[in-house]
Specification:
The complex is a heterotrimer of chains A (about 200), B (about 160) and C (about 725). Chain A is about 45% helix and about 5% strand. Chain A is mainly alpha-helical. Chain A has a two-stranded antiparallel ribbon with strand order 1-2. Chain A is globular, with a radius of gyration of 20 Å. The chains are: A mainly alpha (about 200), B alpha+beta (about 160), C alpha+beta (about 725).
């Protein structure tokens, strides 16, 4: 019998952790969420121009390839999304894109983990309504299992997202600042993360 | 002073670490098989391997290559024995030859990850390497040929 | 009287000179080296002429006076010599020739590579060089064995006495052969006995090009060699007013900053510091007369000029009257932009200048002129200047510059800093460096009779002269007409009874130069696209019409039939695609191409396939001819689809491959090349593959969409 004991203990511990986590989560969200669909939707709509801006859309456009430039033209060099969103064989994103922008006009932009969304969750925003974008973004099956909090965390601190506001020489910026962008996401979450119709 | 591992050798180089790897290879280490074509990752002439991955050495800081295995065209084989080199000779791919080091280094990564590439796979791997002489159809043929050689080589083993 | 006779194109010049000389006499001359500074390695005892050396270990070195820029002369010219020498091909090596009158172009009289003439102009000389060596080796064996040389033969690098079965290798005979006098004349082989010529032969330079050992100019290294990156005027003709080098000098590794005639050179220990220093350099420029140059304005000026006839380059019949009475007429205006050569290896030059000597390493197509320029700048005699021609990372004409820009400038830098130096142009410098293919505007009016047959056309050409102001002006410009401006238009093969070709030459000071296929690069487009329009106007099939108009051109007519058959012209086109045909005669060669394209709803063009047929006379290395056609097609496609050099405020607007893009692997069509068997003398292949591509694609676009393309680059087809 003794050999079962460590396993039981482990199970009990895990259960306990989960319970505590759930409790904390509900407490926390209870404390933060003041459900107000109208305000959540409005906040999300304010985010849309950023998501549709070339700095963001160029990696969230239709097709299994990235885009470039303010005209969203297909990325030169026939770059592909690849099995993990990191390009293929001899043309992975990191062949050219560094962890930071290379100085100079039209030089390769860069940020840590430069990549496209993977093909199983391509997170395409092109041609979609704000409501569709929002639903897609909230769907854990399409967003790498992220909670609303996870989404907010991602858009607030992910270095690839932040790159949009530090895109390198000659590239236009999204229409609102990153602070405003993040604040709108937080607002959206705070008011219950409802999606526009 | 930085230490680079190039073609299996540890080399000390007295250079500003922010210098692009391309110029450290060419000007400091004399490995001129890696070419300068554009300086902005547009043409692929400067392609080398970093831990087995194809990279454009013109936009890679030398310091970012420290502690990693760098392979240049000179390190692909010492005796023209690499299947790609054999296939390139058999098909007579090069014209002016300037872009071919980069082409071969890209193709080497393609074959390492995909031993039997389709034409589409070749397009996807090789479209970052410009050839102004227009040897593309021969590059394609030579990659298929090298893939066959590799397969035949494995069967023989 | 027609003015065509006075307008001697380079092709005519070749023929004329040959005729004047009596056959190809000039080519028969097999000189020894004039320059005493060039001495052969002691290990090479037998050097019967400037082109062949044989070592006692049997290695045969063929010295090649043509620059290797991808077109394969290191192999094909060696094949010519080896054929007549009866050499064992595996023993044949190549070496790049030094600069010496012995290596001058037999027709142009200077050492140079260009005009798709390497095989044609050296066809006889290299074979004679080989035959001479063979005769001497056989004579040496005859002496050794005390037999009549006539009873001996050579085979696979051996002299063989069939009677006795004795054999002596070329290497073993080298010493003895070296003591003999070369024969005055030699008999060349009957082509039916060729063992090497006409067989696809692997290039001798390929191994070096797949392991990184091939040395291009930019790869030259030497202890203490410094690198210079030069700030040049952003506007052609601009001058340095003043400069502040403080920030440039502060860059670690920058050792000097000097002013030279073309700008300000920043000297560094290696390219990167020099380039960073150049970026930090502050220069005030006087932009000069071109400060407001703009493509938009130039296009408008050209278009205006095109509305009236220029200097007449060709006139047959009475096109004006015929057009007035034609059943139907059509007017079309064609435009092509300035183009950069954009060789993959940016321009560069290494110079080691001493008080009494100058040594230069560079990839040049123009050795004699570059040496002369270097000598003048250095204050030396030409004989004191030695040029090592390295491999060229592409030439396409850019490295054959009568203004000797990249060599002359490097000598200026070496002179200023008193140190060996390598001047390296960045891609941007190369793109902004000028010597472009000129911009052209062509206005064409054509008419058909009631049966739809073309009966007249006029072709007004507007564009800068390449020859003007160069040493080639003398024979290149006749009665004010630069023959390269009208080549491919004035020498139209089509039997149209009334034709006028005339030319306006606006005096612009944008540096222009020959760009692979020169005048044919624009006239091929205008002529072949317009002929397609005339076919449509007259309700004729484009191939059928050409066939009719080529009645008196049997070689082109046969080629047309070949390409139509291979491209299955008469069978249905795959759904969604269109087929277009173009033929063009240039550099004495005939080329016909059929392009198969599709255009998507956004106007994006995809060229799926190009079928090409070529008649370039007798073929030396068939695989090399195929390679040149493949390469010419891809080169022509980048220009047809993508590229333009444009100006705004005097400045070139393109910088690098992101805004001057090239066709890449995924856009490269399937290419099929068919060579027409021929026993005519060999003609050019480096350039003739280029001119037909753009019109074949444009005509295919019309077949696919009904939209006419009259301006290059095509970019996106306007589907509206």
């Amino acid at each position: 019998m003794t050999y079962l004991l460590p396993r039981l203990t482990t199970c009990v511990c895990i259960l306990f952790v989960i319970l505590i986590a759930l409790l904390l989560y509900s407490v926390k969200t209870d404390a933060l969420v003041q459900r107000d669909d109208a305000r959540a939707k409005a906040a999300f709509l304010a985010i849309i121009p950023v998501l549709k801006h070339p700095r963001c859309l160029n990696c969230h456009a239709n097709g299994d390839f990235p885009r470039q430039g303010d005209d969203n033209h297909i990325h030169a060099q026939n770059v592909r999304r690849g099995p993990f969103g990191h390009g293929v064989t001899a043309q992975k994103c990191s062949a050219c894109h560094q962890e930071e922008n290379v100085a100079g006009l039209n030089m390769p932009p860069g940020a840590p983990n430069w990549h496209l969304p993977p093909p199983n969750m391509p997170m395409i925003w092109e041609g979609k309504t704000p409501g569709q974008i929002c639903q897609q973004m909230k769907d854990p099956k399409q967003n790498h299992g992220k909670s609303v909090e996870g989404i907010v965390e991602h858009v607030t601190s992910d270095k690839l997202v932040l790159w949009g506001w530090n895109p390198g020489e000659g590239r236009t910026l999204p229409p609102i600042s990153h602070d405003e962008f993040a604040a709108k996401f937080q607002e959206w979450a705070k008011f219950g993360a409802a999606c526009p119709d | 002073m930085i230490t680079l591992n190039v073609n299996g050798k540890r080399l000390e180089v007295d250079v500003d670490p922010s210098t692009p790897l391309l110029w450290v290879l060419r000007d400091s280490l004399g490995l001129t098989g890696t070419k300068y074509g554009c300086g902005m990752a547009q043409c692929g002439a400067c392609t080398v391997h970093l831990d087995g991955q194809a990279i454009r050495s013109c936009v890679k800081r030398a310091s970012d290559a420290v502690g990693r295995q760098i392979t240049t065209i000179e390190g692909l084989s010492t005796d023209l024995s690499h299947p790609l080199q054999r296939a390139w000779i058999e098909i007579d791919v090069p014209q002016c030859g300037y872009c071919q080091s980069g082409q071969i280094m890209s193709a080497a990564v393609l074959l390492a990850e995909n031993p039997k590439p389709s034409d589409d796979d070749i397009d996807d791997a090789m479209s970052g390497n410009i050839c102004r002489c227009g040897t593309y159809s021969r590059i394609r043929e030579a990659i298929h040929r090298a893939a066959e050689m590799k397969t035949a080589g494995r069967r023989a083993e | 009287m027609s003015t065509t006779k006075q307008a001697i194109s380079r092709r005519d010049f070749l023929r004329t000179s040959a005729a004047v000389g009596g056959g190809l006499l000039i080519a028969i001359h097999l000189p020894k080296l004039a320059s005493a500074t060039e001495s052969f390695a002691p290990a090479d005892p037998f050097a019967p002429n400037a082109f062949i050396r044989i070592r006692s270990d049997d290695i045969i070195t063929v010295i090649i006076n043509k620059s290797e820029m991808g077109q394969g002369p290191y192999t094909s010219l060696a094949m010519l010599a080896a054929e007549e020498l009866e050499a064992d091909w595996s023993k044949v090596r190549y070496e790049s020739a030094p600069v010496d009158p012995a290596y001058n172009h037999p027709v142009f009289g200077i050492q140079m590579t260009g005009g798709s003439t390497s095989t044609a102009s050296e066809w006889e000389r290299f074979r004679k060089a080989g035959a001479t060596a063979r005769v001497m080796l056989i004579a040496a064996a005859g002496q050794n064995w005390n037999v009549d040389p006539k009873s001996l033969r050579a085979e696979k690098s051996f002299v063989i006495d069939s009677a006795s079965g004795r054999r002596a290798s070329f290497g073993s005979l080298a010493d003895a052969a070296a003591k003999l006098q070369p024969p005055k004349d030699v008999t060349l082989k009957d082509p039916k006995d060729y063992k090497i010529i006409g067989k696809s032969t692997r290039r001798l330079d390929t191994p070096a090009k797949v392991n990184g050992t091939a040395q291009f100019g930019i790869d030259v290294q030497a202890p203490g060699l410094l690198t210079a990156v030069v700030a040049r005027s952003p506007v052609f003709g601009g001058k340095v007013l003043s400069f502040n080098a403080d920030k440039a000098r502060a860059v670690p590794g920058v050792v000097d900053v000097v002013q030279i005639p073309s700008g300000v050179a920043v000297i560094g220990k290696g390219f990167w510091p020099a380039k960073l220093g150049r970026d930090k350099l502050e220069v005030k420029w006087d932009d000069g007369a071109n400060a407001s140059l703009s493509t938009t304005a130039m296009r408008a000026d050209f278009a205006k000029l095109a509305q009236s006839p220029g200097l007449v380059a060709k006139k047959v019949g009475d096109p004006g009257k015929t057009l007035a009475g034609a059943a139907k007429t059509i007017t079309a205006e064609f435009e092509v932009p300035y183009l950069a050569h954009a060789t993959m290896e940016p321009l560069n030059c290494v110079v080691d200048l001493k008080s009494d000597a100058c040594e230069i390493w560079t990839g040049t197509q123009f050795q004699t002129g570059d040496r002369m320029a270097a000598a003048t700048i250095a204050g030396l005699k030409p004989e004191q200047v030695k040029i090592h021609t390295t491999f060229l990372g592409g030439g396409f004409g850019r490295r054959a510059n009568p203004a000797n820009d990249f060599v002359g400038e490097a000598v200026h830098v070496a002179k200023a800093i008193k140190s060996p130096v390598k001047v390296v142009w960045t891609r941007e410098d190369d793109m902004h460096g000028g010597y472009y293919r000129p911009m052209w505007y062509d206005r064409m009016v054509g008419g058909v009779d009631a049966n739809g047959n073309p009966i007249a056309w006029t072709h007004t050409i507007v564009g800068q002269s390449i020859m003007l102001g160069t040493p080639f002006e003398q024979f290149g410009i006749q009665n004010g007409i630069d023959t390269t401006s009208v080549e491919g238009a004035a020498d139209l093969l089509y039997g149209i009874p009334n034709v006028q070709v005339d030319l306006h030459t606006p005096k612009l000071t944008i540096p222009v130069l020959w760009w692979r296929s020169v005048g044919h690069s624009h006239n091929g487009f205008a002529v072949e696209a317009f002929l397609d329009e005339l076919a449509h106007l007259g309700g004729k099939d484009p191939v059928q019409l050409r066939r009719t108009l080529l009645t008196n051109q049997p070689r082109m007519k046969a080629l047309l039939d070949l390409v139509a058959e291979k491209a299955k012209w008469d069978s249905p086109v795959p759904a969604g695609r269109g087929r277009g045909i173009a033929t063009h005669f240039s550099f004495d060669s005939y080329v016909a191409q059929v392009a198969e394209v599709s255009v998507d709803k956004t106007g994006e063009v995809r060229v799926h396939k190009v079928v090409c047929a070529v008649d370039c006379g007798r073929v030396v290395n068939p695989d090399s001819v195929i390679a040149q056609m493949q390469g010419g097609i891809v080169f022509g496609l980048s220009a047809a689809l993508k590229d333009a050099i444009t100006f705004e405020n005097g400045r070139v607007q393109q910088r690098n491959f992101h805004d001057y893009p090239m066709v890449r692997m995924n856009e490269s069509p399937e290419i099929e090349v068919h060579i027409m068997p021929s026993t005519e003398p060999p003609t050019g292949v480096g350039e003739p593959g280029v001119p037909p591509v753009a019109p074949a694609v444009a005509n295919a676009i019309f077949a696919a969409t009904g939209k006419r393309v009259r301006r290059l680059p095509i970019g996106r087809v306007d589907m509206g």
